[in-house]
Design goal:
Distance between the termini: 68 Å
Order of helices and strands: HHHHHH
Helix content: over 70%
Structural class: mainly alpha
Oligomer: single chain
Largest sheet: none
Strand content: under 5%
Radius of gyration: 20 Å
C-alpha cells in the first residue's frame, strides 16, 4: 500500500495555491484571470468575436505570472526581473483593455454581449491599472530601501 503520511506533490501544490490566493497579489491575479475569462465568454457570444484577443492574451499572461509567483519561481529564476515584467504586463493590459472596451461600448449598439464584454473590460482595465499601481509602489519602496547613502562626511 502507498504511504499516506508523506505529502504528495499535488497536495503541496494545492496548499501553495490556497495560501497564495489569500495574499493581495494572488487575489489580484486570480481576479484578473476570472474577469478575463468572463470577457472571453461575452465576446464569444457577440457578433464580433475579434475583440477577444486581448482577453485571451491577458488571461494567459496572468496565468503564467500566477504560476510563477505561486511556486516562487521568481526567486529561483534570476535571469528575468519579474517585478518589472509584471509591471509592464499589467500596464499594457490596462491600456489595451480600456481602449478595446471603449470601442466595444461606444460602437456596440444592438449587440448586448459586446456591450457586456466592454463593461467587464472597463472593470478589467481598472483592475489591471490597480495592479500596475501596486507594483509601482512595491518598486518604489524597494528602491528607497536599497538606495545607498552618498554622504562622504560620516
Amino acid at each position: 500500500m502507498a504511504d499516506t503520511t508523506a505529502s504528495s506533490p499535488g497536495a503541496n501544490c494545492l496548499e501553495k495555491l490556497k495560501s497564495y490566493v489569500k495574499t493581495q497579489k494572488g487575489a489580484i491575479l486570480a481576479a484578473e484571470i476570472l474577469i478575463s475569462f468572463i470577457i472571453i465568454i461575452c465576446y464569444a457570444a457577440s457578433l464580433y468575436g475579434g475583440y477577444s484577443a486581448v482577453a485571451i492574451c491577458e488571461m494567459i499572461f496572468a496565468m503564467v505570472f500566477f504560476g510563477i509567483f505561486m511556486m516562487e519561481l521568481d526567486k529561483q529564476i534570476q535571469v528575468v526581473n519579474w517585478v518589472w515584467s509584471d509591471l509592464f504586463r499589467a500596464g499594457i493590459g490596462a491600456v489595451l483593455y480600456i481602449i478595446t472596451s471603449l470601442i466595444c461600448v461606444i460602437g456596440g449598439s444592438g449587440d448586448g454581449a459586446r456591450i457586456a464584454g466592454g463593461v467587464f473590460g472597463l472593470i478589467a482595465g481598472l483592475l489591471f491599472a490597480y495592479d500596475t499601481y501596486m507594483i509601482f509602489l512595491q518598486i518604489k519602496s524597494t528602491r528607497q530601501h536599497t538606495a545607498a547613502s552618498t554622504d562622504d562626511r560620516v
